[in-house]
Amino acid sequence: MGDLNRLRQILVNLISNAIKFTDEGEIILLFTSQLKPGNEAKNWQHYAHLHLEYEAIAPETTSQKIFEIIFLVKDTGIGIPANKISRLFKSFSQADAATSRQYGGTGLGLAISNSLTQMMGGTMWVTSGGAIAGTPPQNWQQLPTGSQSFIDTFLPENEASSLNGGATFGFTIIAPEIPTSSLLLISPGEENYLTNKRVLIVEDNPTILKILSRETQSWGMKVATATSSAEALSLLPNQPPFDLVILDMLMPEMDGIALSAEIRALDNYATVPLVMMIPLGTKLNHRDQFTAYLNKPIKKSLMFNVVSGIFGKQTLNSRSVEPEINLGNPPPTQAVTLNILLAEDHLVNQKVALQMLERMGHQTDIANNGLEAIALIHQKTYDVVLMDVQMPEMNGLEAAQKIQEASSSGQLAYRPRIIAMTANAMSGDREACLAAGMDDYISKPIRMIELSQALSVCQPLDPNQRTIQTTHQDPYPPSPPTFTSIPEPPQEPQQDWHNSESLIDANILNSLREIDALEEVIEIYLTESPKLLQKMTEAIEQGDPAKLRDASHSLKSTSGAIGANTLAQLNQTLELMTRAGNTAEAPVLIGKIATEYARVKVALEQEIQTS
């Protein structure tokens, strides 16, 4: 398994740049893999430690298959001049000054992404207008995926030969094979209850239509497609009834709302499930016409859960998918009051979580690290522990393991449900949290709907049994942990701040405002952040990479909580570089962090003045 943190960072950088330089058209992410020859595979051991957040899953045998994974990010933007393309991978280089003035900087820097790629045994390259820079693998455009080439498999026919338009960035990483059973939506031997279900997909974008068609076909469904409402309406009466219709909201001539009304008027379609695909941030006012909706971009696992839920099957160890997804905000209070221990070391994150929990009607105590959490659990009985993964003194994984051991040995009368809070809710974290005895996790920055859903499965203990008992009892009978793919809530359209680039995520600011935490959280953030910047400077002067790593992690976490996403990403890059032992460019990156913080500070101060 490659390092998902670094992979995410590279993709975020490349896709962000593609968005910045593409005024119209589309951005496509493609990927495939090829098996590495035996001699090259042996080199895996030289950099395996750089790939893995948790060493327990490192490969131990030379028989394990090693793959080269190839990624492409293709845009239809302005492209790159042939005489400038070779400069792109130099440290913090810009193609030209005019482009920089019009479009701003290139995010975290292609040089850093290139460096992260090399840490994972890969290379990076770019093509534009027929020119190429970097080191692509041999015959990368013809790599097979099944019976088709890499490009032809994913791109519509009229686009498969147009890679010279805009720019295409590619990179590779080297990673070992992991058991496929952990990745399959339908496990081997499990009844495929979607087999032969007939689905019609209506989508005017040919790329999206092809991807959705491939996904649903892979689940055993029989798929028909239409690129317009008119085509769908001409197809429906002449086909056997479909079991499901998935349609796009925004289409020319007749949109998805109007199409759904026409479909309902057809014979045999009064009760057929309709799933609407809507752009993120769009409010759907005709909710009674649809069984469910999906926010674009469509997530494969979420789409699978929704489709499976429609046909009455619980999937992916997830919480139940309601036939009709709630389109509103979660209620401010929940039906039961839980006694919760919040283990979190950052004041900003403490305040945000505390305000959310109070609004839901829960009782909350705070522990500043894992050691304090262990002490409090032995003094008082809690229904739930919200456990930050990375804390000083004792991290969340260690603390969860201690709680599990105490519960198993009978030292605790009740074992609380443990929900991890992590900024990187990915596969490596999942295995580590499982091994430590956690039951679930939510990602940072915390969102009200995610927190509400994670707590909705918890039940309070009998108030008469809150004192410590001598006989061990477990309020939660053994069951598989529920690590959930939670649908992202509809969001309001993002607002630009006082310049062309939005410094602060308006959705996060609005969520903080709704829980009456905005002003206090901003004040805490502006007080604590300069201290972290000072620690970074001191760490460089003292040659202390651990101090630099911890400071960048802290500023990443709190910046994400306040909605300063670019600043959070800069700090994440610094944290990852430091973890890999690469601090040569740290002073330059710290300078960029300080500059970005100064801009964020001005925006937040203006927010306080106007609120």
Automatic annotation (TrEMBL):
UniProt membrane topology term: Multi-pass membrane protein
Ranges for domain Response regulatory come to 198-311, 339-459
4-aspartylphosphate PTM positions read: 248, 388
The record's listing under Pfam families reads: HATPase_c (PF02518), Hpt (PF01627), Response_reg (PF00072)
List this protein's GO terms for biological process.
phosphorelay signal transduction system
What are the start and end residues of every segment in region (Disordered)? Answer: 465-498
Segments forming domain Histidine kinase = 1-128
| Localization in the cell | Cell membrane
Q: Where along the chain is composition biased (Pro residues)?
A: 475-492
Q: Keyword Cell membrane: yes or no?
A: yes
Query: Could you cite one Gene Ontology molecular function of this protein?
Result: protein histidine kinase activity
Q: Please list the residue ranges annotated as the HPt domain.
A: 514-607
List residues modified as Phosphohistidine: 553
Q: Which UniProt keywords apply?
A: ATP-binding, Cell membrane, Kinase, Membrane, Nucleotide-binding, Phosphoprotein, Transferase, Transmembrane, Transmembrane helix, Two-component regulatory system
What cellular-component terms does GO give this entry? plasma membrane
* Protein EC: 2.7.13.3
Q: Please name the SUPFAM superfamilies in this protein's record.
A: ATPase domain of HSP90 chaperone/DNA topoisomerase II/histidine kinase, CheY-like, Histidine-containing phosphotransfer domain, HPT domain
As its record notes, the protein acts as a catalyst of: ATP + protein L-histidine = ADP + protein N-phospho-L-histidine
Q: List the protein's name.
A: histidine kinase
Q: What is the native source organism of this protein?
A: Planktothricoides raciborskii GIHE-MW2
